[in-house]
Amino acid sequence: MQIGETAPDFELPANGGRTVRLSDYRGKQTVVLYFYPADETPGCKIEACAFRDDYEDFKAAGAEVIGVSDDDVKSHESFASNHRLPFVLVSDTDGKLRGQYGVKGNLFGMLKGRVTFVIDKQGVIRNRFVSQIRFKEHVASALALVKQLG
């Protein structure tokens, strides 16, 4: 998926016993959809905690943050609890959503991709930030755009 394209809808299970659909946010909120390799890995903890630390700023700017990995809901529950994550984590256990969004891994497929999308209220992708190692820049880049979108 590239900037300017309509983000594919999805319906996936999430921590807290929820089912999350992208379409539930359409017309209401900007969505920051971030794909990360795995719960409780060093880089993913840094990224998730950076989103946590700026979560109130995202909310104040009218956005919701949704994390996506192929970990199951039980793993997400533990990860969210261990790090006091206030946002939802969805389980893409079969990798279908990752595939729809074109989030590719590297290192010969051993490491899942880390990509953050900012999706506006109309469901259009406004930014696509890709980096396996600039964990906090995913957050800063998304927050700057969310504030511009208002």
Structural topology:
Layout: E1 11-14, E2 18-21, E3 30-35, H1 42-53, H2 55-60, E4 63-69, H3 73-83, E5 88-91, H4 96-100, E6 115-119, E7 125-130, H5 135-149
Parallel strand pairs: 3-4, 4-5
Antiparallel strand pairs: 1-2, 3-6, 6-7
Helix pairs in contact: 1-5
Q: Treating each run of at least 4 consecutive H or I residues as one helix, how many helices?
A: 5
Tell me the strand percentage band.
15-25%
Largest sheet: 5 strands, mixed
CATH topology: Glutaredoxin
Total strands = 7
Number of domains: 1
CATH superfamily annotation:
Glutaredoxin
According to CATH, what is the class? Answer: Alpha Beta
Mean pLDDT: 94
Distance N terminus to C terminus?
A: 23 Å
Per the principal axes of the C-alpha atoms, what is the gross shape?
globular
CATH-scheme architecture? 3-Layer(aba) Sandwich
User: What is the chain-wise order of helices and strands?
Assistant: EEEHHEHEHEEH
- How does the helix and strand content classify structurally? alpha/beta
What is the gyration radius calculated from CA atoms?
A: 14 Å
- What low-confidence regions span 5 or more consecutive residues with pLDDT below 50? none
Strand order of the largest sheet: 5-4-3-6-7
DSSP helix fraction: 25-40%
